[in-house]
Design goal:
single chain, alpha/beta, Aspartate Aminotransferase, domain 1, Aspartate Aminotransferase, domain 2, 2 domains, 7-stranded mixed beta sheet, 3-stranded antiparallel beta sheet
């Protein structure tokens, strides 16, 4: 069987291989402490669950417009616009079955083979996969550690730009580093995009998952950026709806029309009764009570994980104010245990401490000159008690 040539460029989320290894160890009778995948073990707000049940009972289970039901498009336009102090209408919204489809449809709508895309590394690996699958050229920009986390390396980013560069993918409150851009960094990115006439995909999956209450700086809100930016929105994280598969693309109307046409070709439409549940999530103020409770639980987990990681010899970790990832530097711990490969270190941690986590290598190709080694621990699917147990075992193994 001869597959299409483009299949060789299709990547994957290799963190799912970590999940398989963790499952295999659990099947051997071990208690595994799962930090490897960004799923959420907390319940979806009951207001949303009830809204879906009501929609099903009312027979809202058939086909609907490919761009999504109008009440959800209006609600999402209002919510996104209000948060960013921008004006959006339903015509600026195309509902999607999750956040991932926005990436591919954005690229299919605008990118030609050979076009270059500025893409973060470390970053969500599906960016890289989709860019290369559709014939683009992935130009990875990098981050540098700061006293409070990570920042974009602007000198390196600028060095990547050529006459073929047409796109910038930006993920504020970023996976896996939890890097968050301040206003100065957002303004600098906007200046770069405007100067070089770049389209921007702004992945904002985590921007509303904040702990300190400080407002996120939105790239789309900078003057001159709304008309060149597509926002990737997902209900998965904010509303603990990972398996529901509901998201949206918000951007200029002509582009959104084409993305809706791709919806019609790909999946006809997003599940109608799930969309009605999304309306309830955005419109019902009671839902925010549950979201606030969820954030309190995640914050407790973050604090426990942060404190314990920094108590382990050879590990250093900053405290993120967003999302649900910790991205510690484990270079010295690896040296202490005799490891030079971070994936081998992760495998040994699973075998010796039953702690499962992803590594920097799972988040796009490493860049030349990287000397420090990092791992990513997600605390969205593990209780505070199990974080204490698991990281206690990791500490005992590393310091033995």
């Amino acid at each position: 069987m001869k597959l299409a040539d483009r299949i060789q460029h299709l990547g994957t989320e290799t963190v799912f291989a970590v999940s398989a290894a963790a499952t295999a160890r659990a099947q051997q009778g071990y208690k595994v402490y799962p930090f490897h995948i960004g799923d959420i073990d907390l319940p979806t707000p009951p207001t949303i669950v009830a809204a879906q049940a009501k929609a099903i009972a009312e027979g809202k289970k058939g086909y609907c417009p490919p761009e999504g039901i109008r009440p959800l498009r209006e609600a999402l336009a209002d919510d996104v616009g209000k948060e960013r102090n921008l004006q959006y209408r339903a015509e600026n919204v195309a509902i999607q079955p999750g956040g991932k489809p926005v990436i591919g449809k954005f690229l299919q709508t605008l990118m030609n083979p050979g076009d270059e895309v500025l893409c973060p590394s470390p970053g969500f690996p599906i960016y890289e996969s989709q860019i290369e699958y559709f014939g683009g050229v992935c130009k990875h920009y990098r981050f540098v550690p700061t006293g409070s986390g990570f920042a974009v390396d602007f000198d390196y980013l600028k060095s990547l730009i050529t006459p073929k560069t047409r796109f910038l993918i930006f993920n504020n409150c970023q996976n896996p580093t939890a890097a968050e851009s301040d206003q100065a960094e957002v303004d600098a990115l906007a200046d770069l995009a405007i100067k070089h006439n770049l389209w921007v995909l702004s992945d904002e999956a985590y921007t509303e998952l904040r702990y300190d209450g400080k407002k996120t700086c939105y790239l789309s809100a900078v003057p001159g950026m709304q008309e060149r930016t597509v926002i990737l929105y997902t209900f998965s994280k904010k509303f603990a709806m990972t398996g529901w598969r509901l998201g949206g693309a918000i951007g200029p109307e002509p582009l959104i029309k084409v993305m809706s046409q791709l919806n019609l070709n790909d999946e006809s439409c997003t599940t109608q009764f799930v969309q009605w549940a999304g309306v309830e999530g955005l419109r019902n103020s009671d839902t925010l009570i549950y979201v606030k409770q969820m954030m309190g639980t995640l914050q407790q987990r973050r604090d426990v994980g942060y404190d314990l990681l920094n108590s382990i010899s050879g590990i250093k970790c900053h405290k993120p104010e967003n999302a649900f990832y910790l991205f510690p530097d484990v270079t010295d711990a690896m040296t202490c245990k005799g490891f030079t490969d971070v994936n081998a270190f992760a495998t040994a941690a699973l075998e010796n401490a039953s702690v499962s986590f992803a590594t920097r290598k799972h988040f796009c190709r490493p860049l030349p000159g990287e000397t420090r080694q990092y791992v990513r621990l997600s605390y969205s699917g593990i209780s505070a008690e199990n974080i204490r147990e698991g990281l206690g075992q990791l500490k005992a193994w590393i310091e033995s």
